[in-house]
Amino acid sequence: MKKYLISLAKDIQRRELFFQQADTQDFQVFDAINTMQKTPENLTALFDYKKFETHYSRPVTTGEIGCTLSHLAVYQLIKDDDNVADNEYCLICEDDALFNDNFQYHLDCLLKQKNKADIILIGQSKIDRFNDIELEITYPSTFSFLQNKIKGSHFKYAYTYRPYFAGTVAYLIKKSAVNVFLEKQQKRPFWLADDYILFEREFKLAICTVRPLMVIENPKLQSNLAMLRGALQHKLWQKLIKYPFKKLLAIKRNL
């Protein structure tokens, strides 16, 4: 199985932390596209600013452009690799990825499943625990006993109540799905790299999630973690009000 690590060449500390983990020796490093080194004309030729603003109702940041272009560049590597079959998954991680215990073992168990999803989200950004209550309250799936069990592992997979912006810290993607993105790229990309809502609704890709998470962002690299926790607690009551409806949608979606 091919594994890719997306990382800016300048982020030496992030790479060192990543490769201090077990099961990382077989990752291929891709130097992320540094948009700060490109002119506005270069970026306009590579990315559709106007369509982004129309779709998201806000301007795009140069960092967001770099993230999208970097993931697309890795997709091109996958497409060009004749050793990767169309129905085979590749693993893509970013350099702030922190693996759960026995990551490779559980990943191997997951890959043995007959999963029809085009993309499997095994990680999530802006979550500081692998089984954070935030996952269930804000992004619920069906009841645990109805989720798909991964043989030999305590992890499970299912569809959440709807796709959402889960970040790109770690996910599996089939080569067949990669081809869909690259076909769309021919008209210039306009999307965020983690717009799984768009990818399911318009790109017609099936996206499922693993619970608990196999990967989170490394807390050592999160400068805004305290602020994030405060924001989550502040909005907790609003999320609890919406939770029953979301849970019903999740149950229906997994039937």
Fold and architecture overview:
The chain has 255 residues and is of the alpha/beta class. The protein has one domain: Spore Coat Polysaccharide Biosynthesis Protein SpsA, Chain A. 40% of the residues lie in helices and 16% in strands. It has helices at 12-19, 40-46, 49-56, 62-80, 103-111, 133-138, 175-185, 196-201, 225-234, 236-253, and strands at 3-7, 28-31, 89-94, 97-99, 119-121, 123-124, 148-149, 156-158, 170-174, 207-211, 215-217. The strands form two sheets. It has an eight-stranded mixed beta sheet with strand order 2-1-3-9-5-10-8-7. Strands 4-11-6 form a three-stranded mixed beta sheet, with no helix packed on it. Helix 4 packs across helix 7. The two termini are 30 Å apart. 36% of the residues are buried.
Descriptive terms for the model:
alpha/beta; 255 residues; 10 helices; Spore Coat Polysaccharide Biosynthesis Protein SpsA, Chain A; 3-stranded mixed beta sheet; 8-stranded mixed beta sheet
Give the topology, please.
Blueprint: E1 3-7, H1 12-19, E2 28-31, H2 40-46, H3 49-56, H4 62-80, E3 89-94, E4 97-99, H5 103-111, E5 119-121, E6 123-124, H6 133-138, E7 148-149, E8 156-158, E9 170-174, H7 175-185, H8 196-201, E10 207-211, E11 215-217, H9 225-234, H10 236-253
Parallel strand pairs: 1-2, 1-3, 5-10, 6-11
Antiparallel strand pairs: 3-9, 4-11, 5-9, 7-8, 8-10
